[in-house]
Amino acid sequence: MSVPRAASRPPQLPGFDYVRNLGLGGFADVFLYRQHLPSRLVAVKVLLAAGLSDGVRAQFTDEANLMARLSHHPSIVTVHHASVAADGRPYLVMEYCSQPGLAQRYRAERMGVAEVLRIGVRLAAAVETAHRAGVLHRDIKPSNVLVTDFGWPALTDFGIAATVGLHGAAGAAAGLSVPWAPPEMLAEPPTADERSDVYCLAATLYSLLAGRSPFEVPGGVNGAAELITRIERDPVPAIGRPDVPDGLRRLLTRAMAKHPDERHPSALALGRALQQVEAELGLPPTTLDLPGEAAGPGRAPDSDDSTRERRVREISADSTRPRAPVEVPPSNPARVVTDGTDVARVTSHQSLQPHQSQLGRARTVGAAAVVVVAAGGLVAAFLSGRDAQPPLGDPGLVHETLPPAVAVPAPRALAGARATDGSVRFTWDNPAPEQGDRYRWGVVTATGEERLATTGERAAAVPAGQAPGEVCVQVFLVRSDGRVSSDAARGCAG
Asked: Which of 371, 393, 399 is closest to 384 using CA atoms?
């Protein structure tokens, strides 16, 4: 476990009250704020003052504009507002996704096949929507998929997204995450098209099933150089789970083929293939939510003064509609900087103009209701580990809700102190103890992909070798039936 840097100071934002830190990144921090009007919790991404070059500012502006255009999709994080704080730092106000993201879950629990398939279909629809708008994400990975309050995966962090198809080149700093990157994006010069996002999405789904990134060797050396060599040369390793069906293994192997021509040609094709696996397993098909392109049957055209609504078209597993793939001009790398498993590239790419109308959004609350009952994780309660199935029948609105889970309180009075041997020992209290209570705890890291440990004691220690300076941890309370506290106790000690 690495020792995180200290979070930057949250800016004073008019109309918002700071609540707490949510996460640290390479170029920005994310904070939880409460917005005054309308009253709600929001996630605010704030650029670090040390990285405020003109290029970084431009990239941040591009990210805000891209996400705003795409965030109508139910599986893309919604952007509410963007501006510049009084201290000069740009910030982005986004939907707050309170449940644990995929980065926290996949290393901490065994995710069910049915749930991973549902996540895959929904993310494939989100990626296809971005592609139809001329946007490549280029950095799909578990830590860039949050989970909404109603259990939907939500793609975020379009900070290095490439835009395609039109004129007007502009330099931009772009990064990628090696463990989930396809070979063509690691080559010199790097290239990418929509099949690159297909690879990244498949690699993410592989991670959810395997509990590790695809070419990570447990207990082995997993630096950037070693991972790149394996990604470029080695076949996709076995997932190592007997419950993963052969059809899903073959699907992921194809989607992660070394050459783009051997992969699924689009995110839509990948989504349909995932639906086919659902059908083979006898699971209810997850719908592909894509923006509607015409009024429904028998509906009169909108008048000028009418309220316009664009529905989301649901594509079932047997739907067919060929579409020409989107291709991306190769990037021109100026340099490569490595840090662990992340690679940052300075590239030039073409700017984007939308080639289709503004995307519609249909987030069905009833059908997306989830019982929050699984064990372990960070930020909030896990989704169900029992793979609760979506309702059968009409794939449209389903007026059905599930009873809420009984809330589990977070641990309290978390405190830490450095011992004489150099380790840092943390203790905490249980505000409402019950028989069989356990605790999930871990060091807070900048990547958000920390490993969590389980203990039955109200204390834990970070070894001296892992705590050379200030170290921060978070602790969740887990009941004997698997329910987990909706928030964590957080504290730092040096």
From this structure: 371
Strand partners of residue 17: 34
> What is the set of active-site residues?
138
Strands, E assignment, 342-488: 342-350, 412-418, 424-429, 438-443, 453-455, 459-462, 471-478
Integer Cα distance of 328 and 192 in angstroms: 6
Domain enclosing residue 144, as ranges: 102-291+314-350
Give the total residue count for the chain: 494
Torsion angle in degrees (nearest 10) through CA of 489, 89, 449, 140: 140
* Residue pointed to by tokens 């789970």: 241
88 lies in the same domain as 119 = no
Token digits of residue 3:
């020792």
pLDDT of residue 473: 86
pLDDT (0 to 100) of residue 183: 95
Q: Tell whether 440 is covered by a domain.
A: yes
Q: How far is C-alpha 64 from the geometric centre of its chain's CA atoms?
A: 17
Kindly state the tokens that stand for 233. 């040369």
Cα–Cα distance measured from residue 52 to residue 471, given in angstroms and rounded to the nearest whole number: 27
pLDDT in tens, 141-182: 999 999 988 889 999 887 555 554 422 332 233 457 899 999
Quick check: is 454 in a domain?
A: yes
Taking only the tens place, the pLDDT of each residue in 236-280 is 999 999 999 999 999 999 999 999 999 999 999 999 999 999 999
Find all residues with CB under 8 Å of 329, minimum gap 6, and list them: 164, 349, 350
Token pair listed for 288: 């592909």
Question: Do 372 and 483 touch, CB atoms closer than 8 A?
Answer: yes
Q: Which residues contact 452 (CB under 8 A, 6 or more apart)?
A: 104, 107, 108, 376, 377, 378, 440, 441, 442
DSSP for 313-350 reads: EEE-TT-----PPP--PPP----EEEETTEEEEEEEEE
89 shares its domain with 108 = no
Residue 442 has pLDDT above 70, yes or no: yes
Q: Residue 281: pLDDT band by 50, 70, 90 thresholds?
A: very high
Buried b (16+ CB within 10 A) or exposed e, 387-400: ebebeeeebeebee
Q: 475 and 426 in contact (C-beta within 8 Å)?
A: yes
Whether the Cβ atoms of residue 267 and residue 124 lie closer than 8 Å to each other: yes
Residue 184 and residue 329 in one domain: yes
Give helix then strand counts, H and E, for the chain.
8, 21
Task: Encode pLDDT of 287-336 as tens digits.
Answer: 998 876 333 333 333 333 333 333 333 333 343 333 334 333 333 333 23
pTM score > 0.85 for this model?
Answer: no
Q: Two tokens at 285? A: 């098909």
CATH number for the domain harbouring residue 236: 1.10.510.10
pLDDT confidence of residue 448: 43
